[in-house]
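Translate sequence into structure tokens.
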Amino acid sequence: MTVLSIEPTGCTTADLGAAAAWLHRDGIVAFPTDTFYGLAVNPASSVAVTALFELKGRAASAAIPLVAASVLQVEQIFGPLTSIAALLASKFWPGPLSLVLDTPAAIAREVDSGRGSVAIRVPAHRVARELCAAFGGPVTATSANRSGAPAVVSASALGPLTDDARVLVIDGGDTAGGLPSTIVDPRGASLVLVRDGSIAWNRVLESLRG
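Result follows.
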């Protein structure tokens, strides 16, 4: 197991160069987010995404969420956000609100399990954003645990996942835990709640009223 110990408040893109290189070699990176620790791989690599499913013991029918460094980075891959999606991003990013967007061609089909859509957000954790910046694009952010096991808030709680030689760990201290990100779909005529989470649904709706 390779471990990078990072102080979140002083973290820079340069600090995460080794982790970014690991991702470009189809490796898996465990990293802190504003909720729990997540598992990052290159979402454009079918090899990396397949390895991620294998590590987690996750069914191939389950889609994998993404995180990005900024709204600009999201738009570089997904194209311009719609007016509603852009408004939600301006209100809640960085933060635990994920937006369901059409899957771009650059993303491996295994990420969305053939659904044609994927959830993405800009997290309110500096290490997570700097990892995406160092990598040069969004990364996966599925919870760092075996499927069915509890999500974890510290690198020390990652358990057997760290025994896998494909995994590099970024230890950025404890994360906030709590609820996972709220997921909404802004693509239709009306906003749809996909998963309730850290941001209350009524707050999301109120944000659209001005």
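Note: The chain has a mean pLDDT of 95.
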